[in-house]
Amino acid sequence: MELSINTRQAYSEIDEFLGLITEEKRNEIPKKLRDFFREEKDTSYHKNINSNIPIKEQNLKEETLAIIALLNLQYWCKDEREKERLQQIYANNENKYQAKLREKYNPDNIFKKYYK
Is the pLDDT of residue 42 over 90? Predict the structure, then answer.
């Protein structure tokens, strides 16, 4: 399966992000996964993440933010209550996203626009 340019750019952002965090945090992620991001990234894409600016203000790709959220949930979040809270937030966000897609791509609604 060929990775999209957007995905490869997200991997570039992830690789850069991982280079900015502490070695201790970085090593909590399996080396095989870190190597995967490094090997599959777009080597011509550079984001220049500034460690002095909050992540949400960095204009990172949505895919990058999703991967960071997953890494946080899987490897960095040690508190079980916090994990449950995050999983609930992620589930709610996914439900909202799916509802938006259903509304946007509902065949009944699509044809109504054109045949009014």
Answer: yes
Q: Which two tokens stand for residue 93?
A: 């966000």
- Identify the three-state secondary structure at position 94: helix
Dihedral of alpha carbons 68, 73, 79, 83, sign: positive
Give the global pTM: 0.79
Q: What is the Cα–Cα distance from 105 to 99, expressed in whole angstroms?
A: 10
Tokens of 75: 């490897």
Q: Give the pLDDT mean for 50-62.
A: 92
Q: Is the dihedral of CA 108, 109, 115, 116 positive or negative?
A: positive
Q: Are 37 and 14 in contact (CB under 8 A)?
A: yes
Whether the pLDDT of residue 115 is over 60: the answer is no
pLDDT of residue 111: 62
Cβ-contact 25, 76 below 8 angstroms: yes
